[in-house]
Amino acid sequence: MSSTSHHDDKIAKMTFSSVYPHYLTKVERKGRTREELHEVITWLTGFDEEGIQQQIDAKSSFEQFFAEAELNPNASQITGSICGYKVQEIENPLTQKVRYLDKIVDELAKGRKMEKILRQG
């Protein structure tokens, strides 16, 4: 599925630090922890605890965030719909990466087992 260039530009310019508190609230409201959130972010991006905090402190755009990330080779196994888009069909690579992150945070909040979220089983 293709999205508009305006939509892709908007996502690219959005900062990770502006979205992170929403991720945290979403998972904590459903009984998951900050540590579990960081585990899925680390799995997808390669950022450790310090790296995640540096991205927040630097107010990195998603474009910068994913330019510095080392995307997990199994990220392409993330499928399904998020925000009305099937992540596996998104044509813009950056938008797809952001939606991968949205999808695994959503899976965490919905109580999915960690090994399933991390595509281990």
Radius of gyration: 13 Å
Biggest β-sheet description: 2 strands, antiparallel
Specify the overall morphology.
globular
Task: Sketch the topology as an H/E string, one letter per element.
Answer: HHHHHEEHH
Spatially, the strands of the biggest sheet line up as 1-2
Helix content: 55-70%
Question: What's the total count of β strands?
Answer: 2
Oligomeric state of the chains in view? single chain
Q: Count every helix, treating DSSP H or I runs of 4 or more residues as helices.
A: 7
Question: In the CATH hierarchy, what is the superfamily?
Answer: uncharacterized protein sp1917 domain
CATH C-level class: Mainly Alpha
Report how far apart the termini are. 27 Å
Secondary structural class: mainly alpha
* Low-confidence regions: none
Level-2 CATH architecture: Orthogonal Bundle
Percentage of β-strand residues: under 5%
The overall pLDDT average reads: 94
Characterize this entry briefly.
This protein has 121 residues and is mainly alpha-helical. Helices cover 60% and strands 3% of the residues.
